[in-house]
Amino acid sequence: MENTLGLEIIEVVEQAGIASARLMGKGDKNEADRVAVEAMRNRMNEIYMRGRIVIGEGERDDAPMLYIGEEVGICTREDAKAYCNPDELVEIDIAVDPCEGTNLCAYGQPGSMAVLAISEKGGLFAAPDFYMKKLAAPPAAKGHVDINKSATENLKILAECLDRSIDELVVVVMKRDRHNDLIKEIREAGARVQLISDGDVGAAINCGFSGTNIHALMGIGAAPEGVISAAALRCLGAHFQGQLIYDPAVVKTGLIGESKEANLERLSEMGIKDADKVYTAEELACGETVLFAGTGITSGNLINGVRFFKGGARTQTLVISSQSKTARFVDTIHMFDQPKYIQLH
């Protein structure tokens, strides 16, 4: 799958990233999302595949959608028989967030990305548009920290795994009222807290790399983004656990479903019988082959945002593959017209 789709999947997130970056700092998050969606959809529909969106975006805030169940790729056309040989057909499931961190893009803040994860059919957990309690940590802590333990316990374990003192650890937490007690506990345990307003996919992936100065992600964020994070961290051999949160009283913000009981019923209808199950990265991204790709829209710890120059742009994309066991940083110069110069730095 990587050999067949790798370059084209990179171009999907590159095009989405460039489209959103044109609106960076203009204060219109929905438009930044819309153009990314269209760019991503258009490029995916040029790929020789039959793709199915298992995780889309936009239901929570009525933003534009690549909707769940949407089929993309040349082989989904009505006249597909003329184009596609069934024996060669690549069928994949796709999880997307065309502009992860729409507010970050709209207000020119760090860490916005265009991201997706792909696997063979059935290889990605079709998470409902609920919330998810998440724990991400470096490869050295995989299987040692546990989402069921307290933050204090996990910080002690993490410090031992990384051979650091607790006060050298940095934990990323989304700045939400629901996390006030968590933030207080982390600080009292002696670790440092990096608060983010949005964009926990990038924060989770940072845990998979040494040198980012981010050692854990804790707290509750969106469930669909949790699956994308899990796909990347599984490929990196890092730790990720997620547990669906279905009680509106816990998240303290808008949640699909009017009540805890209604949400439990919806999960049951989706075939999720154990609503409190803790999922590992390998369960959320269970496919034999998993590929993650993310292009920086605004610059973050790991990758640069889109940089425009007259007649072109430069992008940086992180591609992580379970198949080749690689993490590639792809630096691309896009020549739109006849550039008078090509920006190298």
Description:
The chain is 30% helix and 26% strand. It has 345 residues and is an alpha+beta fold. Helix 1 (2-21) runs antiparallel to helix 2 (29-44) and helix 6 (200-206) packs parallel to helix 7. The strands form two sheets. Strands 1, 2, 3, 4, 11, 12, 13 and 14 form an eight-stranded mixed sheet that branches. The mean pLDDT is 92. The protein is built from ten helices and 14 strands.
Overall CATH class of the largest domain: Alpha Beta
The gyration radius over C-alpha positions equals: 20 Å
Distance between the termini: 33 Å
Please tally the helical runs, counting DSSP H or I stretches of 4 or more residues: 10
CATH architecture of the largest domain: 2-Layer Sandwich
CATH fold-level topology of the largest domain: Fructose-1,6-Bisphosphatase, Chain A, domain 1
Structural class by sheet pairing and helices:
alpha+beta
Query: What share of residues is helical?
Result: 25-40%
Oligomer: single chain
Q: Report the mean per-residue pLDDT as an integer.
A: 92
Superfamily (CATH H level) name of the largest domain: Fructose-1,6-Bisphosphatase, subunit A, domain 1
Task: Identify the overall geometry.
Answer: globular
Biggest sheet features? 8 strands, mixed
Q: Please indicate the percent range of residues in DSSP E strands (runs of 2 or more).
A: 25-35%
Q: What's the order of the H and E elements?
A: HHEEEHEEHEHEHEHEHHEHEEEE
Total domain units:
2
> What is the number of beta strands?
14
Spans of at least 5 consecutive residues with low confidence: none
